[in-house]
Design brief:
Elements (H helix, E strand, L loop, with lengths): L2 E2 L2 E2 L12 E10 L3 E10 L2 E10 L6 E4 L2 E4 L4 E9 L3 H14 L11 E8 L14 E5 L12 E8 L4 E6 L5 H8 L3
Antiparallel strand pairs: 1-2, 3-4, 3-12, 4-5, 5-8, 6-7, 8-9, 9-10, 10-11, 11-12
Helix pairs in contact: 1-2
């Protein structure tokens, strides 16, 4: 892993038209329902980041019936992840993601918070405190509040044991909606 400022380089895993991001988990806390942490990386010499609140007890969101995978609707968590601004570091995170995606915005100021619907993409139960968990997150997925152009998906893989978040692209066409959701421009 590439390091700078004692943090992982944000976009070091970018390749072949996909930009996968890595951030270090810091200041981890929890209560009965959620984990709370800051996530930071380095980009072009700057420390960037945001805070996150993620649901603690996530049941598998996929089941296999007659050799066909299907979603377990009771295990889809509305607002299972919330990413919030911590100020200038978060504005710099929006800028870094935009630059990594080669997208220009009018403003790179991060909004106060963005919530996501969460789906655990495995068929087996994973204890998030002890194992890496692979999540699919859905942004702006409430059709009554947002248009189809606002909708986006990505993967948000959390490794609490080793202290990392891997925020990976699902498809490049979700880049602009993700940036419009996180940024105020």
């Amino acid at each position: 892993m590439q390091w700078e400022n004692d943090l992982p380089v944000l976009n070091q895993f970018a390749a072949d038209d996909f930009v996968d991001l890595v951030l270090k988990i810091q200041n981890l806390k929890s209560d009965d329902n959620f984990y709370y942490f800051d996530m930071r990386a380095s980009f072009e010499g700057k420390i960037i980041g945001a805070s996150a609140r993620i649901i603690k007890n996530i049941s598998p969101g996929i089941q296999i019936i007659d050799d066909n995978p299907s979603i377990v609707s009771n295990n889809v968590y509305d607002k299972g992840l919330v990413i919030s601004s911590i100020g200038e570091e978060s504005d710099d995170l929006v800028f870094a993601i935009a630059k990594s995606y080669n997208i220009k915005l009018k403003s790179y100021k991060m909004i106060q918070s963005e919530s996501y619907t969460v789906l655990h993409t495995n068929i087996n139960k994973v204890d998030i405190a002890k194992e890496k968990i692979k999540l699919k997150i859905f942004g702006r997925d409430n059709n009554t509040l947002y248009s189809d152009e606002d909708y986006y998906e990505s993967f948000f893989n959390v490794d609490i044991v080793n202290g990392f978040v891997f925020w990976n692209e699902k498809d490049p066409h979700y880049r602009l909606p993700l940036l419009r959701a996180l940024g105020s421009g």
